[in-house]
Amino acid sequence: MDSKMKKKLSRNTREGLKMSLNIISGNGSDVIEGIAGQRFSCESSININVTSCSNPGAPDLQNNSEFEELLATSHNLSSNSGNDFDVTDILDCDNYVTSQGGEISFDFINQVADPHADLPCILPKATPSKEFDFNHFKHKLAEWGISGNISHMNISKLLSILKTVPALNNLPNDARTLVNTPRSTADQVRVMQPGYFCYFGIGTTLRNLFTKFSYTPLENSIIELGVNIDGLPISKSVKSTFYPILCNIKSIEIFKTHILLIGLYHGADKPMDSNDLLQEFVEESISLYNNGIILNGIICKIRIVMLTCDLPAKSYVVLKTKGHMGYFSCSKCKQEGDHVERVLCFPETSFIKRTDDDFRRQTESEHHIGCSILTKLPQFNMIRDAPLDYMHLICLGGVKRILAGKKHGLIFGKPPYKLPSRDINNISERLKIMSKFIPMEFSRKTRPITECRLYKASEFRFFLLYAALVVLRGIVKKAIYNNILTLHLATSILISREFHCHSDYLKYANDLMLHFVQTSLKLYGADFVAHNVHCLLHIADDVKYFGELDNFSAFPYENYMQKLKNILRKHHKPLQQVIRRSMETEFLNSMGNIGSNEITPYCTQEHFDGPTIIGCNKQFKAIKLSNCTIKLNRADSVVQLKTMEIVRVFNICTTEDDIKIVGKEFIDKQELYLQPCSSSIFHIYECQQLKPTFSSWSINEINHK
Q1: What is the largest CA-CA distance in the chain?
Q2: Domain range list for the chain
Q3: What is the mean pLDDT of the chain?
Q4: Is the pTM of this model over 0.85?
Q5: How far is CA 596 from the centre of its chain?
């Protein structure tokens, strides 16, 4: 390249242009990929990617004769494959500026005969900007601050910067004005020994929710609510505890995951009288059931259908009965407990069930410590409508007891129950390998089994339902393995939307729970069957009435309580802080609704790597379905079809009227276990070896991930 051309190139790059020439030639049809992802096919071609900067002084390339001369020269170079061409010759200037927003791709297919021919416009056409909406901007700014839990100090700093822009001069000076923080909360807080209490209200909270999502209920419908009450320590250094009253809507599908705060107590200890804590809640519940409530112009009735709590909160707050260490403490049956090895246990597997009538008449005085105000709730059964929570019962109860029990635990127990260190390390190594294949729907990956004392409830759930049968195989004794298998299978049935509703499967799950308790008595002794393990005998009855285990689980409430804890910015007056944050959110919702616009299925992460199918328009690496996300990585690419085939997905393609997955079917599909029944009945398989050929299926053929 001559020196004259180099000078021209150097001048252009200093003015703000980075130009890269990618010359691809060869036999047959070559493929050229632009930076933006476009693919072109030609016999001998040149692809010029021009990245323009935002420098207002950059030259107009459309009328730049030097640039036209460069294109002509470059085209002549590309037509002669024998010429040695060094791209670094044209990038000899270090002072260039790039901008991702101005990346343009040209393709010349041996048609540039005249170097002075008109070039297409390479600058994007200016689109008319929408008129600036100050109120909308202010609303989005407030939404950002509230949803991100940004401190008032940082929001105020941002406001002071934004106000230097003339169009934003009318923004408030202080964050408290922007998000409408109340000046005082004294009128909303009342004394409740030994702390303070604020009642937000069921009606107010529901109106805000329905307004926020612009949802109109059916005329004269009954909205069913589930309620949770539990203690939440908010500090490790001082005695400071929340007792929130939470609820969620069980009868409207789109609201099942939304947890609402309807009351909050704070103090150094739990409330002295639980009836005082629940008084306003019960009074409003009665009124809303008898008189109804207007939600977006429609009159509805509100009914409390369940109260989900752990055992301590259930006995003290909800039922006013003996705690879980009492001899007659079981809320479902009249079996008397017994102390064995300093553990209150329930070794009998036959029992007499409690009834609502017996509870209200307090026929068994040893069971009660008072009269609960919840007996006033309309159509509320004190036995049936206070279901057992499997998060505390199975995950933090039975499974944790098997792994981390001080006496019977496989990891931290005592001989002969404790495993040798070699076996414990083998289990941890298997869990480490498994962590690479856990789908994204699980919030936590597997950790070493030596950390099982620190496991969260979701980790114990994953271990029982998915990991235990794989990582314990060949390590623990067969009797213990079968005992864990029994609990796994029973829980799998009760948690399944498909199987829990069949009476035969439900009875089978109940029999499995009974078998688990009976074999645990033989393997570990009577002191293993503490209150949590005993209550496994009753949990199938709750599933029969309320549906699968997740319908009355404490998992959503526990997740919300952690969010409640995280919004605190200091230890001083935590109750008042929550009130202010709640009123800020209420103000934000009143400014405009944010109805969900997400439509599924939709594809993301376009690519060009194949394999493809006939009629394929675009290829993607991920697709969001209504209940899961499928990706091309190993962890998220295996699905089961409605025809029961198990497929690994290698590509996601769109056609004119459908979305298809391209993959290979597993041909070696075997049951994971055969006793106490075949795992294939519940769609549990051990799969190996894929078919050598690809096939395609519509996403409508996918049963589940």
Answers
A1: 106
A2: 3-108, 390-552, 602-704
A3: 83
A4: no
A5: 16
